[in-house]
Amino acid sequence: MLSKAKSKEQSEAESFEKYLTNKGFGKNTILDYTLFIEKKFKPYLNASANKSLSSFSSIESIESIERKEPIEPIEPIVEPVDHETLMGYIRYRKGQGIGPKTINMELKKISYYLDFKALPNVAEPIRVKGVQRRIPHDLFTEKQLDTIYQKFPESKTTGHMRIL
Fold first, then answer.
1. Residue 164 falls within a domain, yes or no?
2. What is the number of domains present in the chain?
């Protein structure tokens, strides 16, 4: 029975890898996404299904559950992944000291997984605030900027805009 569940997990992981390959992802990205889903997200879903989300996130972490004798469900519990489940996951990861950028990357991985499973993609619109965005700089040299400035036509209107 246990080997049947393991082979089903492996075939699902392989199918997810094929799905990501068809999406155009590289080998390392596929490995990263698959390992994340199998080693972090599914154990969280199983643990949160066996306990309430609030007691799970405050009493013990996934790592301590993984070190104990594992609870062997027939197959990983994936459904339903709803908004509250993802919010619990975000609270759990924040509690571990994981930053918003990493959590957002994990949400993107979860989003691809939910698309693969043809489940409602509740992860797509969720993003953790607080990620610093980089502003593009050094796009043009000073000489290029001067050339653009010189060639840009001057506006002939003063005060009010002309309506043609």
1. no
2. 1
pLDDT digits (tens, 9 = 90+) for 38-57: 999 998 888 887 764 444 44
Amino acid at 29: T
Question: Considering the entire predicted model, what is its pTM?
Answer: 0.63
pLDDT tens digit sequence for 87-100 = 999 999 999 999 99
Given a contact cutoff of 8 angstroms between Cβ atoms, the answer to whether 62 and 51 are in contact is no
In which domain, by residue range, is 77 found?
A: 2-135
Whether residue 45 lies inside any domain: the answer is yes
Instruction: Identify the CA nearest to 39 among candidates 21, 13, 18, 15.
Output: 13
Give the Cβ contact number of residue 129 at 10 Å: 6
- The single residue listed with the structure tokens 């605030």 is 129
Rounded Cα gap, residues 156 and 109, in angstroms? 52
